[in-house]
Write a structure and sequence with these properties.
The complex is a heterodimer.
Chain A lengths: L1 E5 L3 H12 L3 E6 L2 H10 L4 E3 L5 H6 L8 E4 L4 H15 L3 E5 L6 H6 L5 E2 L1 H12 L5 E7 L4 E7 L20 E8 L2 E4 L11 E6 L4 H8 L2
Parallel strand pairs in A: 1-2, 1-4, 2-3, 4-5, 5-6
Antiparallel strand pairs in A: 7-8, 8-11, 9-10, 9-11
Chain B lengths: L1 E5 L3 H12 L3 E6 L15 E4 L5 H6 L7 E4 L4 H14 L4 E5 L3 H8 L4 E3 L1 H18 L1
Parallel strand pairs in B: 1-2, 1-4, 2-3, 4-5, 5-6
Classes of the chains: A alpha/beta, B alpha/beta.
């Protein structure tokens, strides 16, 4: 596989190193001359010095071949957006992964159809929610391509679902329960699984059905 | 008419003043408060401090009601993103964007944006002046 990585910060370098270790062909673009010197030596001349949003730099890095995947992981979201757009739309790169530094910019990536994206901040926030839930319904994972998401819900003591079996619940068409965790032990949720207050339930659902699920399991 | 100018440098501030003189309501967004100085003491329009990619700032400046948006910060990529957000998220009828890099300028030209590339204009005019000179 041929991978083009734009941005030689911690993320870019570690991705490059790992891919090289797996014997893939990688070119890394870095625009800071001092940083570039350092990287080029370590990576045995697989680094290119330049602004990865300049087309001649991308071309020097081999974008015309094109790469199997472009990874845009600079510290600037606007740069990652433009690299991704150029790669996909100007050079026909089949796959692009972009880093979102400021989660507020996620909407721009979505608007411009740049997917998948990776945001360390959002992932840490999701983990914080998971570890110290503040809301009763926690988003664990978004499967954008499949248009599904996985959420975690704690069955409330007033929940209409407490004391009932999964098959007795009128779940919306667009949601299914995956597993039930009680006293630290998880089981796959089947029709006969009985829910109790305090259970941690994982569910897979289409975005937009959270409210129905919330009513059924929480209120 | 309502105009929104993002980036209050030499270009943005002058565009804003021209629109305002023509009787438009003008709002400006710039990261630095000092940029307000470029507009003169008696700037009658709105001035919002913040980054052009920040949706909260754009909405505060009224992007949803703007008839025209002019994007001219000193960052090409910021301009490219903000212009597309204005066009595609808010459906602003006219969006003009300054892109210094001629390569990016031609790539983004075909997307319903009015692209102005001062660098490209300079290249074309200098080259044709020189070529004409050779014939003179």
């Amino acid at each position: 596989m041929f991978v083009l990585v734009v941005g030689g910060g911690k993320v870019g370098v570690n991705v490059t190193r790992t891919l090289l270790g797996d014997r893939h062909e990688v070119v890394l673009v870095e625009q800071d001359p001092d940083r570039y010197e350092l990287l080029d030596e370590e990576l045995e001349h697989r680094a290119i010095l330049g602004d990865g949003t300049e087309t001649f730099v991308l071309e020097q890095a081999g974008i015309r071949r094109p790469p199997d995947i472009v990874v845009a992981v600079t510290g600037d979201d606007e740069d990652n957006l433009v690299v991704s757009q150029l790669a996909r739309e100007a050079y026909g790169v089949p796959k692009v992964i972009a880093r979102v530094n400021d989660p507020r910019n996620q909407a721009h990536f979505d608007l411009l159809g740049i997917s998948p994206t990776v945001s360390a901040t959002s992932m840490v926030m999701a983990l914080i929610q998971h570890e110290v839930p503040e809301h009763e319904l926690v988003h664990l994972l978004e499967l954008r391509k499949e248009n599904l998401e996985i959420v975690e819900v704690e069955i409330g003591s007033q929940s209409p679902a407490a004391g009932r079996r999964v098959e007795q619940l009128s779940l919306p068409e667009t949601a299914r329960l995956i597993s039930v965790m009680r006293d630290g032990k998880a089981e796959v949720a089947v029709g006969s699984t009985e829910l109790r207050a305090g259970d941690q339930v994982l569910a897979v659902l289409e975005p937009g059905s959270e409210e129905a699920l919330r009513e059924l399991l929480l209120s | 008419m309502k105009g929104l100018v993002v980036g209050c440098g030499r270009v943005g501030s002058s565009v804003a003043k021209k629109l305002q003189k023509a009787g438009w309501d003008v709002a400006i967004v710039d990261e630095s408060e000092e940029a307000l100085m470029r507009l003169g003491q008696d700037w009658p329009g709105e001035f919002h401090v913040g980054h052009g990619m920040d949706i909260a700032v754009l909405e505060q400046a009224g992007i949803q009601d703007a008839d025209a948006v002019v994007v001219a910060t000193d960052g090409d990529n910021t301009n490219i993103v903000v212009a597309q957000v204005a066009k595609r998220r808010y459906g602003v009828p006219s969006v003009a964007v300054r892109i210094l890099d001629p390569a990016r300028a031609s790539f983004y030209e075909d997307r319903d944006l009015y692209v102005v590339s001062p660098t490209r204009a300079a290249i074309e005019s200098l080259a044709s002046w020189a070529l004409d000179g050779a014939r003179r």
